[in-house]
Amino acid sequence: MATQAAEPRAPLSRERVLLAAVSLADSEGLGAATMRRIAEALDAEAMSLYYYVANKDDLFDGIVDLLMAEINAVVDRDEATGRDWKQAMRRRILSAREILLRHPWAPKVLESRTTMRPAVVIYHDRLVGLMRSGGFSNDLAHHALHALGSRALGFSQELFDPNGAAAGADDRMLADLAEQVPNLAGMLAEVAHDDPDSTLGWCDDQSEFEFSLDLILDGLDRLRQGAATS
Amino acid sequence: MATQAAEPRAPLSRERVLLAAVSLADSEGLGAATMRRIAEALDAEAMSLYYYVANKDDLFDGIVDLLMAEINAVVDRDEATGRDWKQAMRRRILSAREILLRHPWAPKVLESRTTMRPAVVIYHDRLVGLMRSGGFSNDLAHHALHALGSRALGFSQELFDPNGAAAGADDRMLADLAEQVPNLAGMLAEVAHDDPDSTLGWCDDQSEFEFSLDLILDGLDRLRQGAATS
DNA sequence: ACCTGAACACCGTTCAAGT
DNA sequence: ACCTGAACACCGTTCAAGT
């Protein structure tokens, strides 16, 4: 009775550390995923994490691996079909996007990686395989990866957010702005951007994402056909 | 002789603070632009900066304003011409890119802004104006902004860097990777990506950027014509 | 092998105080 | 009006020490 049995706690592991970080980022944003907060969620001390991750960069690498494993699993399942390259590519990219939409921090983390994550390489390798089987030259497949950029993984950085533009602006400011940017003001008035739930935090609605993706895929298809003809 | 005249120092100002921050980011990277380091460069204390910027976010806002003012100045000069929308748009975007290439930190800072910077809005307004004068409907111009995304400002986030892939990898690792990603390995072997100076730090070479930009502009042009016909 | 306490060098930021 | 010293709450990370 003098020695009280300590609460037994599940032992740490690299996976538990990574999952705790993901969980924190999901619920409170990427900024909440600090070593100290992650450790706290695991009922441990910050220094303990360093037994499982080399440093913060390694932690984010691990998170990317987790994310990409999920995406690649979907792609592999799709692999069976893959006759029409354009439809298959579209399907894969939109599947990847669905997963990203559940993790708003994903684009920022993916972009922050300077090292080459094997799972990311594998994802793109499968895209190239799909294009090659669809009649792409290696050269065009290479151009295609560049043209898609981050869109290949299901997101695109938007610098312009008509939905968020009005946030915190009163009528006077909006009127002033309309004078200074008549083209945009007219455009937005006509387009009536009434799709309020853009889940990635940018004005990057599903339909706009698909419009842009199709524009690129169609352009690539034309180039592919042109090369085959000539 | 007892009281030694203190070295007179140029008084601070918001502009001097912003310029010092830009200078630090240019030379030592964005991470070097801390309040303490900026103040040090100005021969002042970190707390003095708060007289000219509300906080770090406000500082980055100011930097974006500086950058965009430079870009908009170029665009305004171009405004005189602007007959063929496609050529004018291409020229503007590549001009913006030239300026961004001198500031490797610019994409990250631009993406980090959540608030709407007027100068960024104005830049896009002029793009819309150009498209409208070129026969775009408001709806297509709106799609176009989404399709271009960050490319409208002259950069695109690349998640895939064939040049950097080999960094820190020995032959054994590369051989293993080639087995796991045969499509990519074959593609890269054929394309022979021997353009070593990608200035933005991604595999985002000028020619690849232009290829993607033209792919999108051509696609938009076709849609514009299609709409005009129907 | 696994975890931690104490400590270090950094952050951004506040606030009362100096000139 | 302009600038600063001292202090606070937070980082990531190291290292020697505990079990």
Précis, in short:
Chain A is mainly α and 230 residues long. Helices cover 63% and strands 0% of the residues of chain A. Chain A has helices at residues 14-28, 35-41, 56-79, 85-101, 106-112, 118-133, 138-148, 162-165, 171-180, 182-191, 206-229.
The beta-strand count of chain A equals 0
Mean of residue pLDDT of chain A?
87
CATH homologous group name of the largest domain in chain A? Tetracycline Repressor, domain 2
CATH architectural category of the largest domain in chain A: Orthogonal Bundle
Description:
The structure is a homodimer of 230-residue chains. Chain A is flat, with a radius of gyration of 23 Å. By secondary structure, chain A is mainly alpha-helical. In chain A, α3 (56-79) runs parallel beside α6 (118-133). Chain A folds into two domains: 12-53, Orthogonal Bundle (Arc Repressor Mutant, subunit A); 54-159 and 170-229, Tetracycline Repressor, domain 2 (Orthogonal Bundle), CATH 1.10.357. The model of chain A is unreliable at 1-6 (pLDDT under 50). The first copy, chain A, contains eleven helices and no strands. The interface between A and B is large, with 61 and 62 residues. Chain A binds a DNA duplex (19 and 19 nucleotides) through loops.
